[in-house]
Amino acid sequence: MINKKTKKDLFTLICVIIGALIMAVNIKTFVRAGNLFPGGFTGLTVMIQRIADEYFNVSVSYSFINITLNAVPAIIGYKTIGKRFTIYSCLMILLTGIFVDFLPSTPLTYDPLLIAVFGGIFNGVGIAFALRGKASSGGTDFIAVYLSDKLHAPAWNYVLGLNAVMLVVAGLLFDWNQALYSIIFQFVSTQVVGALHVRYKKVTVHIITSKPDDLSEKLMIYTHHGITRFEGHGCYSNQPRTLLYTVISTEELKEVIRFVHLVDDKAFINVMKTNSLEGRFYQEPIN
Fold it and tell me: Is the Cβ–Cβ distance between 26 and 103 less than 8 Å?
């Protein structure tokens, strides 16, 4: 019987491998075909490769540059975010580099707008896979995750601003068209990550139940979130009913609904999007 920790590590490993493969294929299929800079340390790596190639006529390994650049953020991530998160993020950096160095170049299109849009989508999906497994693609992702944990809100748009600065430099050194299309690429990627990564999004859950004592006690232990209880009367059933009110993260929602129905299979659940939240809120640690 596989224990919970082993399952968790296996799930993370699968997410990291899939994410690394998607990002590598994206680089060899879209990014290189459009001479784009995908943002973050991946984009900085590509930019350094192009500087070495065009200005010094030297071919430099993607893996070598990418691992070197990520060394400092990895150390910071290890100290501020956590050991497990950093180790798996480093594994993704390593795997992405290996895949990029060994996969053949297979461009699907040379249309810069198609490359910017679909390349951005693939890039965002690759990052989202890593984040789903509680890892990252490294570089500026360490910054985004750190800020998101501190702010309890998505910080990917802040990283988009940092990437825009790098892309301006790319425009000055190479070609403004490529740099501007790269900004589109990065914007699309950021929006995809924001849509798929729901860790910092909140929902309000209203549960009407006839088993309030049992459900509230078990649910608080299961989620570590506080619950407020309101007593009422069911107009249709003409029976006493209790409303349990709680706020959880969106990524917890499916499991919470499943758990509630295990305790009370007749519970009525209403879920509402939470746009803003003030006060204490338990966020499950990344590690």
Answer: no
Q: What is the C-alpha to C-alpha distance for residues 166 and 74, in angstroms, rounded to an integer?
A: 20
Q: Which domains does the chain have, with CATH numbers?
A: 4-196 (no CATH), 202-274 (3.30.70.120)
Could you identify the residue written with the tokens 């009525």? 268
Nearest alpha carbon to residue 44 among 179, 210, 226, 167: 167
pLDDT in tens, the chain (287 residues): 566 678 888 989 999 999 999 999 998 888 877 777 766 777 788 788 888 888 888 888 877 887 788 787 778 778 878 888 888 888 988 898 889 888 888 888 889 899 989 999 998 999 899 988 888 887 777 777 777 777 666 767 777 777 788 888 888 888 788 888 888 888 898 889 888 877 778 899 999 998 989 999 999 999 989 899 999 888 887 888 899 999 998 888 999 999 999 999 989 999 998 887 777 777 776 66
Strand partners, 97: none
Q: Which residue bears the tokens 């049992």?
A: 214
Q: What is the pTM of this model?
A: 0.76
